[in-house]
């Protein structure tokens, strides 16, 4: 006979809240991705289909081809608008670097602090250099 473990109690409200929070994030991420991909396909697919048709038969008027090209360009200009609307992290990052998006009282990062953060300079670099040698 194999002893069985005592049955686990039903999930607590905290674990249900945790699951609910993550499922809401997953739905929001799926919605954002769906909107971005949908807009990309609506804007660029006609251009690519027309481009192939132009290469095969040469029957596409130049004005129509230009309109489809500009439709794709308009999609590319919409991305900086769509990302901040749906992604909180993107909005925060843009707020740090663009003066028009920064909240009042929030300091602007200096160029020196940005370069120090992005480079390997500082005490850690010296310690890692000693370890390598």
From TrEMBL:
Q: Which domain of life is it from?
A: Eukaryota
Gene Ontology molecular function, alphabetical: G protein-coupled serotonin receptor activity
- Cell compartment(s), UniProt: Cell membrane
Compositionally biased tracts (Polar residues): 113-122
Q: Where is this region: Disordered?
A: 113-133
Q: What is its main location?
A: membrane
Which GO cellular component terms, listed alphabetically, does the Swiss-Prot or TrEMBL entry include? Answer: plasma membrane
Q: How does it sit in the membrane?
A: Multi-pass membrane protein
Domain (G-protein coupled receptors family 1 profile): residue spans on this chain = 1-83
Residues of the signal sequence? Answer: none
Q: Which InterPro entries match?
A: GPCR_Rhodpsn (IPR000276), GPCR_Rhodpsn_7TM (IPR017452)
Residue spans crossing the bilayer: 26-47, 67-86
**Which keywords accompany this UniProt record?**
Cell membrane, Disulfide bond, G-protein coupled receptor, Membrane, Receptor, Transducer, Transmembrane, Transmembrane helix
Gene Ontology biological process terms from the UniProt entry: adenylate cyclase-activating adrenergic receptor signaling pathway; positive regulation of MAPK cascade
Put simply, this protein is called: 5HT6R protein
Top-down, what is the taxonomic lineage of the species of origin? Eukaryota, Metazoa, Chordata, Craniata, Vertebrata
